[in-house]
Design brief:
single chain, 1 helix, five-stranded mixed barrel
């Protein structure tokens, strides 16, 4: 039997502060939007073009706590997850939604500085394949000190 793959990798900028909700069963969910940009030059006219795509991201499990505490509008993130489609009925007929359910996240840069890699989020039912609950990975790069900051200074605010 052959396997299939539903995997998304995005690097972009957070478009809004996280929205934290609870499901009917009490599980916490975080939602944000992520902007990715692409630019190209038209071959015929030589004109430079740019397009921004917006992605709806959904976080479950431990990632909700990390997103709630550390992610803010404008932060740069790398996320891995899977595509999920859903449909709701409205007055004007059905509405269709595309979500990226995130199971790995790396903070590439933020308004608060620092960076880190967070994984595991579990998921909402379904088979997460090999991505299940991997736990935290060693801290990512990021941060970087400006002037004379010392590497030996502890930063007790970090979640890892």
């Amino acid at each position: 039997m052959s396997r299939s793959l539903n995997k998304v990798m995005l690097i972009g900028n957070v478009g809004n502060d996280p929205e934290i909700r609870a499901t009917g069963s009490g599980a916490r969910v975080a939602k944000i939007s992520l902007a990715t940009n692409r630019s190209w030059t038209d071959r015929n006219s030589g004109q430079k073009n740019e397009k921004t795509e917006w992605h709806h991201l959904t976080f479950f499990g431990r990632l909700v706590d990390v997103v709630e505490q550390w992610v803010k509008k404008g932060d740069r993130l790398y996320v891995e997850g899977r595509v999920e489609y859903s449909q709701t009925e409205g007055d004007g007929g059905p509405k269709y939604w595309t979500d990226i359910v995130v199971n790995e996240m790396v903070m590439l840069g933020s308004t608060g500085g620092g960076g880190g890699s967070y994984g595991g989020g579990g998921g909402q039912g379904g088979d997460d394949g090999d991505f299940g609950d991997r736990g935290s990975h060693g801290g990512g790069g990021g941060g970087g000190g400006g002037g004379g900051s010392s590497m030996s200074e502890p930063d007790d605010d970090l979640p890892f």
